[in-house]
Amino acid sequence: MAIKNITVPDVGGAAEVDVIEVLVKAGDHVKVDTPLITLESDKATMEVPSSDEGVVKELKIKTGDKVSTGSVILVLEVTAATPVTEKKVAAPEKTPAKAEPTPVAKPQPAVTSSEDVHAGPAVRRLARELGVDLAKVRGTGPKQRVIKQDVYAYVKNYLSQGGGAALPEAPVVDFTKFGAIETQPLSRIKKLSGKNLHRNWLLVPHVTQFGEADITGLEAFRQAEKAEMEQKGIKLTPLVFIMRAVVACLKQFPQFNASLDPSNENLILKKYFHIGVAVDTPDGLVVPVIRDVDKKSITDLAKELAIVSEKARKKQLTANDMQGGCFSISSLGGIGGTAFTPIVNVPEVAILGVSKSAHKPVYQDGEFVPRLILPLSLSYDHRVIDGADGARFMVHLTNMLSDIRHMLL
Amino acid sequence: MSETQVVVIGSGPGGYTAAFRAADLGKKVILVERYENIGGVCLNVGCIPSKALLHTAKVLDEAHEVAACGIEFGGVKIDTKKLLEWKNKIVSRLTGGLKTLAKQRKVEIIQGVAKFISDKEIEVEGANGKQKIRFENAIIAAGSRPVKLPFLPDDPRIIDSTGALELHDTKGSMLVIGGGIIGLEMATVYHALGSEITVVELMDQIIPGCDKDVVMPLQKRIQKRYKNILLKTKVTKVEAKKEGLWVTFEGDNAPKDPQKFDRILCAVGRRPNGDQIDASKAGVKVDERGFIPVDKQMRTNIPHIYAIGDIVGNPMLAHKAIPEGRVAAEVIAGKKHYFEPACIPSVAYTDPEIAWVGMTEMEAKAKGIKYGKGVFPWAASGRSLSMGRDEGMTKLLIDETTHRVIGAGITGPNAGELIAEIALAIEMGCDVEDLSLTIHPHPTLSETIAMSAEVFEGTITDLYLPKKTETKAE
Prior knowledge:
- The complex is a heterodimer of chains A (409) and B (474).
- With 409 residues, chain A is of the alpha+beta class.
- Chain A has eight helices and 19 strands.
- In chain A, strands 9, 12, 15, 16, 17, 18 and 19 form a seven-stranded mixed beta sheet that branches.
- Chain B folds into three domains: 2-145 and 271-332, FAD/NAD(P)-binding domain (3-Layer(bba) Sandwich); 158-268, FAD/NAD(P)-binding domain, CATH 3.50.50.60; 346-457, FAD/NAD-linked reductase, C-terminal dimerisation domain (Enolase-like, domain 1).
- Chain B is built from 13 helices and 22 strands.
- In chain B, strands 1, 2, 3, 4, 5, 6 and 17 form a seven-stranded mixed beta sheet that branches. Chain B has a five-stranded parallel beta sheet with strand order 8-15-9-10-11.
- Chain B starts with a strand and ends in a 17-residue tail after the last helix.
């Protein structure tokens, strides 16, 4: 029987993730793929399954610990492929007698500086002098060692991106001077989103193009199909139609389905159509991505959307579920309001905000008739999209929605 | 009252290095030293004199051993007085040289014992009375002193490492209390000069802190030559009588009856002098063991007062004090420098020498680090054999996942010189193949490092180790 350290697998580029749940304890028998712990990174949770079958000898982590790729989760006594029950019972009794010294410390791969970065002492000194965190620098030396040029390049890049530009500081106010207060920590999701939204706001020159879509016909269609759809357990929301309409527009205006490359000099046009849909959860806003919207029918999309929203509210979304989006849609129509200015979800270049539809008088053929009007707010990255394109996209979108048969053309 | 930008308390390797560096960076520096000679323990009663004597001990031993090669010297005549003079001349040459360096840099040296009277002033009490020095920055480099065992009687035959270097009496039997580096180095000298040596050590090996397999060749060699090495044993009582010192032992290997020795060398460790400088008057925190806690820029809890060397912590080594002294001076001069080495080597200048750096196997196991090792026995080294030695070894510790060099232990003549290569390898984050692919000259002892790397990789041709399969980094 071999002793094996079960480690955290690749956590998708996140440096450190929280252990929010430990699902096994010492003495438990686990099979291959038995979930061992639950990790939370960004807004996604992931379970770490066991890579082997065996008996948990000792846990190396507890709820609340921070771990990263390669951290030891537990020590497993790997049992033979064909489990023999008598042997398994004997195993936990034998091992305590060995009494190996096992402190809870995380194993470090090599004894280097506190950041454990592959860099010689001269480079480490340079980093200290420039105030650079070596863990953030990409090494281009032999075996990805960080060399002095890498440190200088990092600093240059940081400064040119204005990342080092000093932001004016907000004043610190003692609010107790004015009355009673209560301090509430921001949720994890809010803290993470906050950082991203701030960054997006700073990086992208936003313009929001407002528009109105006449969805009287769409709504009539939706109501007509409602009974049959309910029988199939499907809920047809206006959102799925908007998603298909958006895809039709992205095909017509490919620069909306793109991202700027790192040099900011090239546009990477995407040939796929994955749409991010903002979902409000008790902990905050998350944006799961629906893939290949162009290839799915309205009913497919409705089904998938329902599943994804449920997963989001149950905090079961994985990091994978939230990656790969081309364009985002944020619908506040269910709540209310006339219009808002959504923030572009970098690295995308556009986002559609949807507000509450309302009956409004529209001048048609010499008279005012009541029509159901859906307010739309299209924010876009003005580096990539100019005003004319923004307006054209909006017109095309409202056209699609005012008569969904246009989508067949 | 004198005023200065930087006052350095203590002129050992840490202190004088800090003083000279600060002066070179444009600061006005006063260096305070309690003794007439500068250079601290290292130059006067530590590193330098002990190495000088160890050199002569080595020559003596080699002169005896070369008889096996057919070269016989007649009887050996040892003039301890002349040996002492030669040793003292070396020390004077170095301390004199230091005084010249200080003069060239206009570093003022004030002799006396320094104590703080506030966080801006010290008072130095010297031969000419007391004087106050007002400072902008202070660097405490007051070092350490040998630990005294309370039950040892006050007798001139009971000495510490400082007294041992005076070579008052080198014949007869000597008990060395403490099987660490200092005790064993002094034992080497006295044995070569004709003493009968017994070593008593509390732990289960000599030089605790170094892996057992690295220490073993030395232990075997001295076991044969010394009267006794009593491990897991301690001294409980010493009675000073006219005919000798009667020592009572306790422990696994303790002799039942008290034993008589002509001399006792007490080498049970050193303690920091943090309790000797009235640090509290400056508000400087000193812990219960006498160490002064500092951050990575050598600052104490008082931002303009720094501390370096033995007084801030283990390992108490000159080559830790020196770079700490440099950093302290550079930080005072406004540089963003930090003392954060990846590793600090340790050396025992016994014969064979023992040197180690980075992780030991004991540490790696305790930390749960998965490591592999490559061990090359010097019995297979042409150079070692042609020096008439076969007991040495080189051991590399390699991280199993990344194949980076994380530690090494070397035993044999010149181990202290050889270990520097591994210190560099660890600092540069070398992989084991960086060592095996670097061409080391042949025939040398240094090539045993490349060979240990090859042993780990399973590619060695100078040994036949068929069970090892070739390993590549993941």
